[in-house]
Known about the structure:
Blueprint: H1 3-11, H2 18-29, H3 35-48, H4 52-63, E1 79-83, H5 91-101, E2 106-110, H6 120-124, H7 136-145, E3 148-152, H8 159-169, H9 177-190, E4 195-202, H10 211-227, E5 231-238, E6 246-247, H11 249-260, H12 266-282, H13 289-302, H14 304-315, H15 320-326, E7 334-339, E8 344-349, H16 351-361, E9 377-380, E10 387-388, E11 393-399, H17 402-415, E12 416-419
Parallel strand pairs: 1-4, 2-3, 4-5
Antiparallel strand pairs: 6-9, 7-11, 8-10, 8-12, 9-11
Helix pairs in contact: 1-3, 2-4, 2-8, 4-9, 4-10, 5-11, 5-12, 5-14, 9-10, 12-13, 16-17
This protein binds uracil.
Amino acid sequence: MRTVNIILKKRDGDILTKEEIAFIVNGYVDGVVPEYQVSAWLMAVFLKGMTPEETVFLTETMLDSGTRVNLDGIPGPFIDKHSTGGVGDKTSLVIAPLLASVGIRVPMTSGRALGHTGGTLDKLESIPGYRTNLSLAEFRRGLAEEGFAMTGQSKDIAPADKLLYALRDVTATVESIPLITASILSKKAAEGADALVFDVKYGSGAFMKEKSQASALAHSLTSVGTALGMKIAALLTDMDEPLGNAVGNFLEVEEALDCLEGNGPADVMEVSLALAANACVLGGKASDVEEGLALCKKALESGLPRKLFLDNATRQGGDVKRLLEMRGNYRSQYAYDLKAERSAYIARIDAYKVGLASVYLGVGRNRVKDAVSPVAGVLLRKKREDWADAGETVMTVYAKDANSLREAMPLLKDAVSYGETKPSRKPLIG
Ligand code: URA
């Protein structure tokens, strides 16, 4: 087999065999196929696409490039939730203990903030002492005892994805549905879940700006995941405005706790409950989504999900006493209230601009190695459809230092649009 022929075949829009896909991907991992040829092949895939069958082959090859988490001996079902990334999205922190409370185990492998989107690991690590670098034994113990565990991705999981993703990042080939599908599913399949619930976001703060692109990704994740033997549900959710009122690492932990106590913002609750209800159906705990919703609401009322969240925090090294003491007052001293320019309705709070400003504030990072601040963030006091009197606070902004605050403020001011009439309600899901 010659690499150039595989590139040529894809360049001309032909369908590759499993052997051809494995040849190029494994060859790259083994250092035999050079980066320039893999780059050319990625661009050919980007331009010509892949059939669902080719995407299944690619996913399997990437999955087989590393190890799989062994969950033998722990009773299932095992279901994970994956979001394509957003601003203010703390639903993982709500869903994992909620599902655990109804008997679904959640082997959750999460990522860090990058670019304008937040990361679950950074949020969790804002709890003093909380560790997200669990060994396999610790991960298994958490899953067995609390029913969920939260960790970063081990370097042994899908190493082909790590290499290919880094190359895609510098060859303008990230936004390809088959490449994204294989990247996400190879990692998720390796972590031991039998079923996955996807939150595929669209809108300014999402990876996919257009709903049609998000729908195509949801479709691809569902068909390829199903072909790999997993049960899949995929919801499309709006990410044009930040989810909830809090954007920031510790601020979002606080808001997740509010949700677990029944006092969370309506939008975070709606998305969390919808995803959890779908997981209940996949896991055989409910016969339909309605029943799943009722089950999840009842579980929240029992207080068990909140207890499991705090038990998990303790197990993973977190100081729960301090977490609860710090609630409501762990804030940066570099704070600023952004006031309404005039008396008007809030027509839009642009999630992308809030997300970008958050990087300046210290919530997120531009480069993988940058440090983040636990106390930076934005608390939205007003959201789309709310009325604001001139001079009323629209958001309170917390920055890691005075300079970052100065840099972020123009973007945050620009993120808010005002209107004379109340904007119509947009559906959050679907
Ligand atoms: N997230 C992933 O894990 N992979 C992609 O390719 C895109 C988003």
